[in-house]
Structures are given as C-alpha cells and as structure tokens.
Amino acid sequence: MAFTMHSHSGQFCPGHAVDQLEDIIKHAIKIGYKTMGLTEHMPRYEEQDLYPEERTVPPEEALAVLPPRHAAYLAEAKRLQAAYADQIHLIVGFEAEFIRPSYGPRVLDLAADPCVDYFIGSVHHVHSIPIDFDAATYASAVAASGGSEERLYEDYYDLQHAMLQALKPRIVGHFDLIRLMSAEPGRDVRKWAGVWDRITRNLALIKEQGGWLECNSAALRKGLAEPYPCREIAEEWLSMGGKFTMSDDSHGIVQVATNYGRALTYLDSLGVDTLWTFSRTPSASTEGDQRASLEETTVPVSTFREGFPA
C-alpha cells in the first residue's frame, strides 16, 4: 500500500512546482498509491520572504495573491477528495513555514480550518535566508552565522526546536534539510558536539510530542547519498522508538514516487519494517465545521515495496 505524506503541485506552488493537482493525483492512482497527503506550501507574509521568481511584480502584489491561493487550494483539495474517494485516500494538509517565530500563530490559524487534517512542520530558512534554494543564498546564510557552517547547523536546529515547541507538528519535514547545500553533506554530524546535542534534543522533543519523521526521498533526486534524515540521525531516532512515515516531496508528476525503491532499501538497512500513515474518517470532507478524525495506521515496508523494486 504505497503512499506519500508530502506533495506539491504547480497549480498552487507556481514557479516552485509543475502540473495541475488533479493530474498529479490521477498519476498517483495509476502507479498504485492508496493514500496521498496534499501539502501545498502555506502563504508567506513579508516581502523579504519572497523567492526570486516571485519578484517580477511589486512585492505587495506578489504577497497579496498568496492567502487567496491557499484558500483556493483547500477548496480544490476538498473537491478532489470527494471526487476520487473510491480510488485514493486523500488527506488534506499544508507545509508550514517557520521562517521566524512570528510565523507560529499564522500556522496555527491556518491549521484551525476544519478541512485541514495535519501540517508538515518544516524549516527552510535560517536568519530569514533560504538554505535550500541555491548555493549563493546558502553562502549568505553561512555568513549570517558568522562564516561557520557548524554554527549555521546549530542555528538551524535551534530554529527547528523553536518550531517544534510552538507548533507540535504531527510530521516533521526533511529533518536535516540543512545538509542539502552543505560543503560536505555526507559529514558525520556527531563530530560537531554542539550540533549533535541539538539534534538529539530535537528528536527527543518530537518523540515526546508523538510526532513522526518522514523518510523523504527528495534528498536522493537532489543528489544526496541518503534520504532525509541521514543514517546517524535515523539510527538515533529509532533508538528512541521513533516512527517513520514516507514522503516523495514531489513537485510534479515526474517526481511522484521518485527513488522510492532506493529509499525503501535504506529503511531496510536500518531495520525499519513498518511505516506509519493516517486513516481519515470520514474519507472526504463534509459541509460544516466538523473536523475529521485521523487514526494512525501501519503499513509493512514489505507491502509498500511491492510496487517499487530497488
């Protein structure tokens, strides 16, 4: 029973992703997905948080379209949830931003909508600078941390800790995204004592809050040797009794289930035999203010693998 808990479309993340949301869902059904979490990016609210492709119009215009686009996404997600209920279990969420602590109340406001089942807790910025966009912006983030990658990692995990405290997300997105643009993404972070202390602190908090980490295969298509999180972090998480869900973090049809075979082999090597997802009741949103219930459900890795050979 294949699934993803983290996905995007070009319809609601233009410039960042491609393809219409409905076409992506149809493709997911075709390749055997039984559950799909829809998690378009939440709006941003300040000019400094716009991406380069969004700066082709005045910033007030670029920012003004984002909240209505989010509302349109939720409406379309509800429609698709009902339209395809007999073919795929669609769970509606969004990917939260925690660019700075002022985003916390914004996230919780969006999450209060009764059609929102969950959100991914993510950090994509440090010192308000994107750390996964390109090498130049990553270098700017390093400079803002005093010119030290080690310090930037510490700052990233400190901001992640603030996010966890404020939001208590049920799923934490790409836990170690900070390594994507690093000069040495495969380094053993346990050698940086301050970084490792922060990592173990954050993992312990996620476990205490009942959250999951995603095994996020997007790291593989972006050239990293291991999914998020890397082996050292994954082993520490498992030693705490932590649970994994599965995500392709797709940004269009071509990326749906990309590198799932490799990611499952990685999980096998860690001794992971069970993945976790949600079962939603009712399966589609109803009118009114009643929120659906989510039940945590298990999927054996062996069952998941049937459609995704190594």
UniProtKB/TrEMBL annotation:
Protein name, as recorded: Histidinol-phosphatase
InterPro entries: Histidinol_P_phosphatase_HisJ, PHP_dom, Pol/histidinol_Pase-like
Organism, as annotated: Stachybotrys elegans
Gene3D superfamilies linked to this entry: Metal-dependent hydrolases (3.20.20.140)
SUPFAM superfamilies named in the record: PHP domain-like (SSF89550)
Pathway terms, separated by semicolons: Amino-acid biosynthesis; L-histidine biosynthesis; L-histidine from 5-phospho-alpha-D-ribose 1-diphosphate: step 8/9
Entry's Gene Ontology BP terms: L-histidine biosynthetic process
EC number(s) per entry: 3.1.3.15
